[in-house]
Amino acid sequence: MVITAPPPLSTGGFLRWSWRQLTSMRTSLILLFALAVVSIPGSILPQRGTNPILVDEWIEEAPTWGPILDSLGFFDVYAAPWFAAVYLLLFISLIGCVIPRAGVHWAALRTQPPPAPRYLTRFPGTIEWADPRSESEVLAAAGEALKGWRIRAEDGALSAERGYLKETGNLIFHIALVGVLIGVALGGLFGWRGNVIVREGNGFSNTLTQFDAWGGGRLTGDMALAPFSFTLTDFRVEFSREEAQRGSPTLFQAEVSYQESPQAAPVREVVEVNYPLEADGAKVFLVGHGYAPHFIVRDASGAVLFDDSVPFLPQDGSFTSTGVLKVPDASPQLGFTALFLPTTAVDDIRGPHSTFPEADDPSVFLSAWKGDLGLDGGVPQSVYTLKTEGMEQIGLEALVPGQTWEFPEGSIEFTGFDRWASFQIAHDPGKEVTLITAILAMIGLILTLSVRRRRIWVKVEKLPDGRTLVQVAGIAREDGGHATPEIAYTARSLGAPAEVIPEEDE
Amino acid sequence: MNGLAEASNAFIYASMAALTVAMVAFAIAFSGKRSAVPVVIPAGDVALVERPAPAPGRRASNIGMSVTWLATALLFIGVVLRGLWADRVPWGNMYEFSITSALGILLVFLIWSTRRDLRWLGLFVVITALLTLGLAVTVLYTEAAQLVPALKSYWLIIHVSAAIVCAGAFTVGAGTASLSLIRSRVESKNGGQVSGWLTNVPSTERLRTLTNRVLAFAFPLWTFAVIAGAIWAENAWGRYWGWDPKETWAFITWVLYAAYLHARSTAGWRGNVASWIAILGWISFLINYFGVNIFVNSLHSYAGV
Ligand code: HEM
């Protein structure tokens, strides 16, 4: 354990002391540990960025803890100030650590290794023997044997060092990590990402108002969006009917007609999972799909008030889907909450649900409401929820395609369904920086962890009988300081008798 | 189920049987004390020096090694047959990932054992592989044939195969780290002496060096696996990093092993503290694999249980 002095009281002294603490190896270790710990809650609690609906449910179910955790940022951990504090401290520590080390290393690269110590025998693993050659012959042979090492030749001794790439690799690694952070920050500041649901036959053009959800970086505006557009011409999806994997998707594929700009000629493109569409600096990814049942709503006189398909959100792997239909033009206003079941089943426990994702036996279960939809309050409302306070339920009904349900205020016809696909459209200007620096970091890491830094000394001394006493010793930066293999190698190349070379346990 | 799947299962069961034999052999080797030191028996004026017969442990652990090679060959065939049956890489779901990881653990151990004497580690490795396979055939078994679309990518091959080798190396590293902790504890209690089966195990310092070696191999590979995963995620979902639980735990594992490497060069932390961190890293790897796949709703959870 390193014993540290208490902090000095003067301001300058205190600052210097704090800096030394921050850039010490022990601090970096503790901060790394802290980083691991503060990452954990985000993997246990639902997160706003990936699952806002689940977050709201969680908070609703835990009225005491929910809001507290929320205000402390536990539902957006990776953007929370305490998370940022840990990694920023770590990176400040890293920079403070790396800059002086880079200087030291730079100087070390341009100077000779330090001279050999006076007494070699106190180093573990030293090999010595009496050699018939002269001192200078032995030293010349040692210079040959240690080719490729950085060598300092002295009178009667030679010091050699190798493995500088270890430190170079270490510095590359740590500096590249800063680059990774910069790349991530660039993406966060200047990148953007939006999600949109497009029904078959409908189009999308890349402007803010068209996205269902949009997350832009702090410095991204509407200006950043390229003017492309596309129409979903066909969406194909297949599910396995094999026993073992019943219902898991085997194919989904969106065929789009893509225009790079309003003037450009449309091009046919296929978007699949793992095969995004490159769209003028952004990428269009296929991320989900579902059903959009088609309804016609008429008033009591038979006039058509609504005639369109409505995207429903799948709730399970068999695509039991829920959705809402609002008809503000009716008087009184009408609203429907509905279940769409591609393969219908009803049982006592689960009620109506779907048993297979393909539309083998489709139906909708409707609940109709009349009254005030509450759309005029100015507060934007989700298209997936119906506010039923202030409304009165008309009744419940189940329909199969082609059927109509008549009620006193009018009627609703379920004509069939379209499919929809959801796309994520993303632009990340930092990802190349991140990728390149991450690869550099990996190369640096391989260097630093595979290169061995070793110092070897060879000393010669004239013996009374005219022969030469040769001593070979060395130290290592790692492996507990033992340079056994290199010492043995050097001694062997110098022609040391086999008896003096210890057997290697490597 | 057809012939290939049945044959694959048969080879995996055969491998488990062989591993059980190896386990017994290693356990016998462990219980036998290695006493290479001659015993001096005072008898009047003359001292008799008795050289003990070769310890029974040596022969048993040699048998253990041979049977482990056999078990690994059987498992290899089982894994390959599974891949042929499914007509893709044999790591499309948890069952397959488990049997392939068990193969990874055994291969890392055996390949390393060609370069140095690792018989003392055999018991740990064989038990871990056996537990992994046991869990696979009982709890995780699926006949899932097809891959869900998100997994249909050559990145699956690159990313997951790197992770499987890491699983092997992390496991072996956790084994040597645990042994070093046990040895160091016994030594500090008994004034630097160990007895019984611990005499079969290398010195504490040596165990720490070995841990360092495996983890120095595994850490860059894990870095590579994470980068490959990020590239794949960018292709599939439009972002290279999204703090999905699986990604988060991959990150935690990475950070913990980085902390381990730091601890190895920090005065006062390089001994037992570093070994504990190596074990924590392994636990975090396991949490990522079992915990996240089974309990957490993650984008990666489609790798059917
Ligand atoms: C983002 C945070 C960091 C990560 C992920 C990280 C990771 C690593 C890794 C994996 C190694 C092993 C490579 C080797 O042994 O040469 C290492 C070594 C090292 N790191 Fe860091 N590090 C971080 C921050 C820091 C900081 C803040 C310092 C300064 C206190 C530091 C100082 C060192 C030193 C001195 C070594 C070399 C140890 C040796 O000589 O073996 N690192 N780091």
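^ protoporphyrin IX containing FE complex. Chain B touches chain A through 59 residues (CB under 8 Å). The two ends of chain B are 18 Å apart (CA to CA).
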